[in-house]
Amino acid sequence: MTGDAFIVLGTPSEEQLQCDNHDHRSCYGYNSKACQERAADYWRSSNVMKVFNSRLKRLRLQWMRTPQPGKKLLVLDIDHTIYDCTNMLKESLHDSCRIRPHLSTMFSSLKEYYDYCLWSQTAWQWIETKCSLIGIYESCQSYPLFILDRSNMFSVGKSSNDQAVEPAAGEIVEVVRRNVKCLRLIWDSCPELYSEKNTLHIDDLHKNFGLNPKNGILVSPYRKANYDTDTELLKLTQYLLRVAKLDDVTTMDHSTWKNT
Ligand SMILES: [Mg+2]
């Protein structure tokens, strides 16, 4: 790989290149009892079930590698979790700077215990580009099981007082929408392989855990400011090696993983 700048023809807007901005203030409580109850409320919403069922019906996982029975599943976000896409079209930084340090160490250390898939909030063509730059396709050993993009996400609604939205007829509710990565789409697509007991979702946006807070592991966003000092994936690897021994990953509170 080189650090040469490039132009992608037919590029969609830069909005599709990058995911949401971050608000890391007070987001470490994403697995609180209140958040778990909110997730349960979402699932009781007929609107959420309707959207979920339609997404599940159209989902066809494109397997790139054979899953290894008995291994747990890591659902890995891309942007700011393992790669920094900020100003990707404007700055010709060397690609190796943008790849989060210790990613290859993490993959090699965990492959005995985990398979992984990628799930990005960006459009498919950008995911392909980023995967190439990261080197995901350089060896079949590093292929993810499958890749999901923003089209596999959906939003769940909540009112301004943070309750699931079930407005009465004629009622006007101030709706806040949040896009989520719903792991149940994976679980219901291949129930013989994966469930909430053996799946972990690594992301730098806690809101993506909205429907599965018990399975989320929040990492700090990887950005240019910490290119030289970032050791998040080394610490995460040590944590995941400990979690690998659990029969049910939801028996641990992963929102406090940095304190354990
Ligand atoms: Mg991200």
UniProtKB/TrEMBL annotation:
<dbReference type="GO" id="GO:0004722">
    <property type="term" value="F:protein serine/threonine phosphatase activity"/>
</dbReference>
<dbReference type="InterPro" id="IPR023214">
    <property type="entry name" value="HAD_sf"/>
</dbReference>
<dbReference type="InterPro" id="IPR051658">
    <property type="entry name" value="UBLCP1"/>
</dbReference>
<dbReference type="Pfam" id="PF03031">
    <property type="entry name" value="NIF"/>
</dbReference>
<protein>
    <submittedName>
        <fullName>Ubiquitin-like domain CTD phosphatase 1</fullName>
    </submittedName>
</protein>
<dbReference type="InterPro" id="IPR036412">
    <property type="entry name" value="HAD-like_sf"/>
</dbReference>
<feature type="domain" description="FCP1 homology">
    <location>
        <begin position="67"/>
        <end position="243"/>
    </location>
</feature>
<dbReference type="InterPro" id="IPR004274">
    <property type="entry name" value="FCP1_dom"/>
</dbReference>
<dbReference type="GO" id="GO:0090364">
    <property type="term" value="P:regulation of proteasome assembly"/>
</dbReference>
<dbReference type="GO" id="GO:0005634">
    <property type="term" value="C:nucleus"/>
</dbReference>
